[in-house]
Queue: 2 jobs
Job 1
Amino acid sequence: MMTPISFLATTNSDSAIVFYRDSLGFKLIEDTPFAIVFERDGAMLRIQKVESFDPHPFTALGWQVDDIAASCAELTRNGIVFERYNFLQMGDSDIWSAPDGAKVCWFKDPDGNTLSLTEFLAS
């Protein structure tokens, strides 16, 4: 069996711990000199501790959700601020409706990693 592990990077582990544990609800498994390890819903996230980092200009990690509006409302209550992109028609919300019917929103972690939530169109 091969189980995927997600990786991100941080230059400020204290901020990353607060963000992923307190704002996103991940369980902190360990904090080593090399990485912070989290778990949520059976999936592992390793955030590598680095001295310098330039985040990618695209989504680094995302999650599928059943109800994006409810998920966004919960994260907003936890202090998450969602991104607005002028090149997408986002209306009054911070949620974009893709041509295939999926709904997507984006937000950043303290290091500038772009994260997303996606609600796929029910088939």
Job 2
Amino acid sequence: MTAAMLVFHETDQFAGCRRITGDTTSGRLSPGVAQMRVAWFHQYGEPEVLVCEEAPTPIAGPGEALIRVRATGINHVDLDVRAGTSRVPLKFPHILGREFAGEVAALGDPGSSFREGDRVWVACRLPCERCEFCLTGRDNLCERGGYFGMDIPGGYAEFVKVPLRSLNLLPAHLSFEDAAASQIAFGTAWHVLINRGGLRAGHTVLIQAAGSGIGSAAVQVARLAGARIIATAGSDAKLERARALGADELINYTREPEFDQKVLELTQGRGVDVVMEHIGGEVFTRSLACLRTDGTMVTVGAHAGEVVPLDIIPFFRRQLRLVGSKNASLSELREVMAMVADGRLKPVIHATFPLEEAAQAHRTVGSRDLFGKVLLKP
């Protein structure tokens, strides 16, 4: 694919976007593709701070590739970063987007094994590959690396410059949309349930908010592990979709806010072996009451409340485990993406939006009136 083939027609491609002068992305321009569309924000705030504008297109240097983005997954952390609640300092304007897939538009390294036109998905994180965690296969704990959409310009753009080491070939039968919706949801669910939670066949697991991107992914991962699944959600419609993915028992926490009592009823007072909790607040506290003796709760989010009261006594009297979890290691990401490619895992996509509607996409994710993932399609 030549640069000339990538020239855009402003009359339709840049509708709704504003022109920005000066180089705010890389300091260099890509021949034939001087300007690209981005959905970024210049200050923290509500979804309305996300604006679609034009910006200079970066070009790939040695060891890098320029990716034409075809689909980008929106994660709840994007909303936190935009709002400023993530406590991560940013340089404005900022381009979000941790997980994305597309095509190699240009290569800065002629000796690369990749070729222009290759279909790829981009690993969401760039570990340093030198620290203790990286050298022991726990690169998700690396403190020297960076994340796309946070430390590095992300996928809310038509083009992204990435290191070659972050590229992974995308099979021809797997859509860009499925690739962009899979990496973080399935990777995190796998890391939480299998790696941190020790979930295995014969276990009973409680999966909170099964209608979310990570929740719907977790139901599939737990089904693959051979576990009995109790799923919660805020509507019967979401619960029925969770059942279709493999959930065995359903709890509508809007109708049954004391879901812990229902869990104990469903397990004849025994409780569950593993809880996947990513809500926080009162849900966190009640989830602990759902554990069986010697059970494990893995926490991976706290959007409904980051500070909670905690009774320590049950932990030593019943030998409970409370385990924190980040997202997956690179090896886990590649493992789950292989499962997606061979059909063992299938992402659930709620809706897709163009870059011009990034603010509305954030509202959709923030409303929680969804089942599965929300995508942007440049």
